[in-house]
Every structure is written in C-alpha cells, then in structure tokens.
C-alpha cells in the first residue's frame, strides 16, 4: 500500500506559516534543495490543497525553461510536469488539468482508493488545511519535517484539533549548515 508523507517546513514552536500564510521565514539553500530533490525524485505523486496547488501550478510548469533557472528549478520543474497531482478542493474543477485529479468529496474513500493503487509514496506538499483534513481521518502515514530555527509565536499550527494520540517512530534526522533540522517520522500504527 502506498503511503502519504506530509512534507512541511515548520517553526520550532510548531507553525507552518505565519498568521496570514507568510512563509518568508523558511530557510532553503542548495544543500536542502539537493537533499529534498533526491527524495522527491523517488516519488511519483504530489498531493496538494487548492491554494498550494495553484501556487505550484503558477510557477513549476515553466520554471525550468527560464534562462536564469537554477539547477533545482530545472530538476523540480521536470519532476513536477511528469508527477501525478492530486488536489483536495471543494471549489476547483478538473477540466483541462493535465495529470491532475481533483478530490472534492468522500475524502477517506477516495484517498484510500489511491493508496491501494500501484505507485510510489505520495508526498503531501505544505497545504496545512489539506494536512489537517487528512490528519482528522488518520490518512497520513509519515511526517517529513524541516524544523527552521525560528519561533514565530503565532500562525498556522501543523498539529491542531488532534482527537487521539498519534505515536511516531523517528526514521532519520539531519542537520543542515543553515540551521534547519530534518525530522523524518513514520506513524507507528
């Protein structure tokens, strides 16, 4: 069975964005891009909420074609174009979207059906609202967190309205030169 892994940058105090969705506090550099790019290249499916999908769709399809594109932009753009995309949205329509499936209802049934299909792990990129919905339904199988060395004090929390205790098993950790620490957990079922 395929697993859904939530890939998220997070502040030390547990926020994934500022109060108005700000992400300007997130640290990324070539070292992180290279590390993340390797794992992403091993996946064939991206899962997004509507807002994150629209942000990604407005940039990644052509990012690698720009004359000033970085190596990361070129590699991730190639991956993005061929990856299967799943978007959780009650307002988007799927007509004309390339390689993209919209899920607007029966979230648990639809996601479980996708998890049963052949393929690699499904990476849930950012998308705090989608993440919260999947958490409530116990559909997330792991958390790939990049803890940034900052305390925001307020914002959008990663973990909120958790009904039951969720036990995790630490798989790997890595500290990056810029001060970000990766924590890779699997849900211990």
What is Rg?
16 Å
Order of SSEs, N→C?
A: EEHEHHHEEHEHEEEE
Sheet with most strands: strand arrangement: 5-4-3-6-1-7-10-9
CATH architecture: 3-Layer(aba) Sandwich
Report, as a whole number of angstroms, the end-to-end distance. Answer: 14 Å
CATH superfamily: Dihydrofolate Reductase, subunit A
- Specify the structural class: alpha/beta
- Number of β-strand runs: 10
Q: Helical region count? A: 6
Largest sheet: 8 strands, mixed
Provide mean pLDDT, rounded: 93
- Fraction of residues in helix: 25-40%
Query: What is the C-level CATH assignment?
Result: Alpha Beta
Strand content: 25-35%
Outline: globular
Low-confidence stretches: none
CATH fold description: Dihydrofolate Reductase, subunit A
Number of domains: 1
Provide a compact summary of the structure.
By secondary structure, the protein is an alpha/beta fold.
General description of the model:
- Helices cover 29% and strands 28% of the residues.
- The protein has 189 residues and is an alpha/beta fold.
- It has one domain: Dihydrofolate Reductase, subunit A.
- The strands form two sheets. An eight-stranded mixed sheet has the order 5-4-3-6-1-7-10-9, sandwiched between helices.
- A hairpin with a 5-residue loop joins strand 9 and strand 10.
- The chain is globular, with a radius of gyration of 16 Å.
- The two termini are 14 Å apart.
- The model has no long low-confidence stretch (mean pLDDT 93).
